[in-house]
Amino acid sequence: MQTDNIKRLRQNSPLIHNITNIVVANYVANGLLSMGCSPIMSNAIEEMDELPAICQALVINIGTLTSEQVKSMIKAGKSANKNNIPVVLDPVGVGATSFRKQTVQTLLKEIKFDLIRGNAGEIAHLAQVNWKAKGVDAGSGEANFSQIAKDVALKYDCIVSISGEIDYISDGLKVAKIDNGTTLFPKITGSGCLLSAVCGAFLTLGENSFELTVSACTSYAIAGQIVKEQLNDNQTGQFYIALLDSLAKLDDTTVEKYAKISFE
Amino acid sequence: MQTDNIKRLRQNSPLIHNITNIVVANYVANGLLSMGCSPIMSNAIEEMDELPAICQALVINIGTLTSEQVKSMIKAGKSANKNNIPVVLDPVGVGATSFRKQTVQTLLKEIKFDLIRGNAGEIAHLAQVNWKAKGVDAGSGEANFSQIAKDVALKYDCIVSISGEIDYISDGLKVAKIDNGTTLFPKITGSGCLLSAVCGAFLTLGENSFELTVSACTSYAIAGQIVKEQLNDNQTGQFYIALLDSLAKLDDTTVEKYAKISFE
Amino acid sequence: MQTDNIKRLRQNSPLIHNITNIVVANYVANGLLSMGCSPIMSNAIEEMDELPAICQALVINIGTLTSEQVKSMIKAGKSANKNNIPVVLDPVGVGATSFRKQTVQTLLKEIKFDLIRGNAGEIAHLAQVNWKAKGVDAGSGEANFSQIAKDVALKYDCIVSISGEIDYISDGLKVAKIDNGTTLFPKITGSGCLLSAVCGAFLTLGENSFELTVSACTSYAIAGQIVKEQLNDNQTGQFYIALLDSLAKLDDTTVEKYAKISFE
């Protein structure tokens, strides 16, 4: 793996188009800025052709989906595909309602995604594995995540990343396991949404989407891990803010030092 | 009153459906997570039947109302009533515009609410008492809050909670006064909106809505009071974040120790 | 210049109507509260006549523009003009897409603005000067900002404020340069959006829009400068929150002490 991704990201400072939800729009923007990127948030159908043409990546997040937004997502996704920029799907709470299920199926049919990133409940739903998801939260169950990641990656011909205490990332053949989890991530809103955007940013760095996704997820997990070293499990508010500082401070040397990645 | 509400809330970890405004969606989600609950934010008409069927409470907040949202609120409210889950109304700035006045009247006609929670200006408006509200802020005036809380509770056959330096909660017969106010609450946005969501979460704990609302409002006020002990009146940003930590740390023993509740 | 603007602002506590974007609605509300003002956020067409009639200023921000919002902006702007309250335009990312360009032209034709406040890229676009803007970020280039501020002020018969390391403010004749910049402002989202709202608040203090805009921009820059004295360039999250505290603590004496203003 290349070991200068964060450095290159800060140098390139890519412009990232986010179609995202009203809950995390602010946090995702601040997180991308902390990583040295330029975020632009827009849902307006009038801008969906042009923005992917001037941006370096598109991140689609269905957290507070509306029917208007679905149209915008499709238009932007097609423009992104035409402009050959990476497209990330964050299928927030996909199993929770019919609307989310149908929308994700439509998006996966109409748009070629480079990466699908979600929590265990969301990706298990896409794999049609039995799992007890809980709204937009991961939920609980027993499952073979390596297999699920592989299956969904093969099914949709893209990288798949399952975030949790351990992250599982697959391109359909290989699976990377990242063991840098932090208990505080599920206690704040938008930690997954921001990671999806960070993945989109890393995917602008080159062609090797699998390695770049592993690099993005490892870097992000470590930024959280470093903060957690100084906090207890109740300091959810402090974690929320300190994570931004940690992302702003993170460098490749630190990531290399902390990273616990294994391959299957 | 039961003295293990916070413990039970963290154990049950209810899923709370919020139809809320773009200003506080993030803070309400983080606050509910800090209390051990799972928030889901959604306004989409397509989801308004299904979400209340999988959630344990519905919280309706009119802070940045749109005509589309009104339709969603009614549909979700009816589904919540059908599914017998508690429904909370936060009539943000109800007196400020005709649109808000009419919408609240429509909501109160179409939906059976378990609780209406607002500031002095909002509840005084519902009681048709003369009061100088100020946009979405409480405003000022002279009024008998105990009587207002009682009157509105009787009028709409639900619990009413008036938040302020002193909280007044009534079921139409009894009135509880909570004297754990904190000067910093009105200096941050969404402190009332988050309290409404926390009340919705507490209402999932049983049938006694009056006691559970008193418990929710007392717990929340005390979380703020504890933070305020270490801050001065200018530290609005610190208060905003530390309140999340305080909610995450709060337990029943602490609430019992600090609580100043009297009944009329 | 009057040296009691902050004091008067906290005394008057004006109600400020914001038509703003989903990214910064929360931060702008908290920032205005920290300055002692009362924010109200609303996009609903149903409220656009009434709100400017009860508010003391209107701030229009196109950050996450929708076609529905454009209609609301025009209606609110006309009502604000009729009610003689100051109107501020924040043309976020105006050069990024045709939709933003056309909307800003429409707004400038339909509404009489008292102030246009933006970053270098945005105001350069309005001056039709060659500049490499980057999405909603300032971008880079060489330009005579004093001249640009003057030109745009003359063209639209209003005050123009260009925010950056140095702020340039013009009424078309005079130009004020404020040299109180802070490197952390461009690293957080919404720092410009909040400044636009703060300018709107200051404009409620009297008729001299040029001096009041200079006062607002100087005060805001200094609030950031004071925070930055205790932080390094990586502490973006801390800066985000501490800026609210700093705005809440700021007084006229401190502003007078720090201010570096020169006139051309």
UniProtKB/TrEMBL annotation, chains A, B, C:
Q: Which residues bind substrate?
A: M41, G190
Q: Please indicate if the UniProt record lists Heme as a keyword.
A: no
Q: Which gene encodes it?
A: thiM
Q: What does this protein do?
A: Catalyzes the phosphorylation of the hydroxyl group of 4-methyl-5-beta-hydroxyethylthiazole (THZ).
Q: What is its EC number?
A: 2.7.1.50
Keywords linked to the UniProt accession: ATP-binding, Kinase, Magnesium, Metal-binding, Nucleotide-binding, Thiamine biosynthesis, Transferase
Q: What is this protein called?
A: Hydroxyethylthiazole kinase
Q: In which pathway does it act?
A: Cofactor biosynthesis; thiamine diphosphate biosynthesis; 4-methyl-5-(2-phosphoethyl)-thiazole from 5-(2-hydroxyethyl)-4-methylthiazole: step 1/1
What does the record give as the reaction this protein catalyses?
Answer: 5-(2-hydroxyethyl)-4-methylthiazole + ATP = 4-methyl-5-(2-phosphooxyethyl)-thiazole + ADP + H(+)
| GO biological process terms held by the UniProt record | thiamine biosynthetic process; thiamine diphosphate biosynthetic process
This entry's Gene Ontology molecular function terms read: ATP binding; hydroxyethylthiazole kinase activity; magnesium ion binding
Identify its protein family: Belongs to the Thz kinase family.
